[in-house]
Amino acid sequence: MAKRAAPEVNAGSMADIAFLLLIFFLVTTTIETDRGISRKLPPIPEENIEPPIIKQKNIFTVIVNRDNQLLVEDELMQLPNLRQAAVEFLDNGGGIGEEACDYCQGPRDPGSSDNPEKAIISLVNDRKTEYRTYISVQNELVAAYNQLRNREAQRLYGMDFLEMESRYNDPSFRGDKETLKERIDVVQAMYPQKLSEAEPKN
Amino acid sequence: MAKFTKKKSGELPAVNTASLPDIVFMLLFFFMVATVMRQNTLMIQNQLPFADQVEKLDKKDLVMYIYAGKPSPRYQQKFGTEARIQLNDKFADVSDVQKFIYAERESKREELIPYLTTALKVDVETNMGLVSDIKQELRKAEALKINYTTRIGEVGKN
């Protein structure tokens, strides 16, 4: 057989093929990071450690039953009101003398929490509670803490607490991270997140 | 008409498109590299709840994913409609969570282990009983940093 030069392949449609692939990857790409509510679980307590005694007035009990209804401090409550109720409890500042809270703006009701450092939110679920309700409740309680922390950060440093945190976690932030960390710690100490979760009943 | 055809020398030359495939290929490779394919094939229904007090979960290599929810319709015949846990590509029991955490830790560099976070991707309809069981197992395995993965939106949409 006589040797013949192979005809050149027409590469004119290469661009079309590449475009097709490009569009496929463009459509399927999702450059997104997951977001969510971060929490820290308590470590398993060691044996024979007596739980500390806490005054009843410093505990804000939130109970969610199997029908996803909320019982807050022995009263039925709707979810949209939970945030405000939690803020009022945390910010109450009913303590006197050593336990007084000079930055609280709450009603200073002696029957509610002494100061934010002592105030504990206790969340009790039923095993049949739906996850969506649980997340909503968690979200509202975290929002209550964030609202108070934002307020204090605004008052002291003229900046939102969440803004401070996001700057601190931003690796490209060129400011003074040391002072920022100190300020974050100050605000966190003013309203420490004390959210206790009991193991579900039933 | 002859007038028009004669005018050829005055026209602009056509833009050379020979390098167009190269440019497109460059873009293509960028997107191919940047695309993250889903690591796990979901075998469960996974509709995440809404929340607005969220934090970003950066550094994907430091996250362990635990999924939970009802099995997808095509697995329901075999596994029923009761909510299940999914680890990697398999359905798992509550007792497997600890083993999974240890296996994940084993695969990471030692200095990174304290930064590991567990992301819980739980379907909205799941009962808290299962979630609490998972949390209890995580406490036993001392994987205390967790993140409830959510979508962003008002809680009223839940």
From TrEMBL, chain A:
It is a single-pass membrane protein; Single-pass type II membrane protein. Its main location: membrane. One of its GO terms (molecular function) is transmembrane transporter activity. It is found in: Cell membrane. One of its GO terms (cellular component) is plasma membrane. Keywords: Cell membrane, Membrane, Protein transport, Transmembrane, Transmembrane helix, Transport. The keyword Disulfide bond does not apply. One of its GO terms (biological process) is protein transport. InterPro entries: ExbD. It comes from the Bacteria. Belongs to the ExbD/TolR family. This is Biopolymer transport protein ExbD/TolR. It comes from Gillisia limnaea (strain DSM 15749 / LMG 21470 / R-8282).
TrEMBL record, chain B:
Keywords: Cell membrane, Membrane, Protein transport, Transmembrane, Transmembrane helix, Transport. The keyword Transport applies. One of its GO terms (cellular component) is plasma membrane. Pfam families: ExbD (PF02472). The lineage of its organism: Bacteria, Pseudomonadati, Bacteroidota, Flavobacteriia, Flavobacteriales. It is found in: Cell membrane. Belongs to the ExbD/TolR family. The chain crosses the membrane at residues 20-37. The keyword Membrane applies. GO terms for molecular function: transmembrane transporter activity. This is Biopolymer transport protein ExbD/TolR. It is a single-pass membrane protein; Single-pass type II membrane protein. GO terms for biological process: protein transport.
